[in-house]
Design goal:
With 122 residues, the chain is an alpha+beta fold. It has one domain. It has one helix and eight strands; from the N terminus they run H-E-E-E-E-E-E-E-E.
Length: 122
């Protein structure tokens, strides 16, 4: 009885871990970031690359925001395990509009292999 429960629990572990593994991950690298003011909104556009085909829904998400700077993470959904994809760098883009204090002067964008800091254009 006890062994059966342990075996059942061990067999169910991959099923429980699946959704957590299927979450967003940082893109491989960020190549360029342009941040400009549009009225009271900070508009950020980023270009970068993922390490293979099959990635989708690239986006920028706020990690930290203070009076002078904003830190963003460049993320996307990786391809499902076992999916056949091209093994090459594939370009991705994302943009984000942020309500921020007009004193923000820099945007730092994080990727897996690097990070890039850009001055905000007026």
């Amino acid at each position: 009885m006890f062994r059966t429960r342990i075996a059942t629990a061990l067999l169910c572990l991959p099923l429980l871990a699946g959704p957590a593994l299927a979450g967003e991950k940082r893109v491989y690298k960020v190549d360029a970031v342009i941040a400009t003011w549009k009225g009271n909104t900070l508009s950020v556009q980023a270009n970068g690359a993922v390490s293979s085909g099959g990635w989708k829904n690239a986006r920028l998400q706020i990690v930290r925001k203070d009076a002078r700077s904003v830190t963003l993470e460049f993320v996307a959904l990786p391809p499902p395990a076992g999916m056949v994809v091209i093994q090459s760098l594939v370009p991705v883009t994302a943009s984000l509009d942020i309500r921020a204090a007009s004193k923000v002067t820099s945007v730092n964008t994080l990727a897996e292999a690097n990070e890039l800091t850009s001055q905000v254009l007026r």
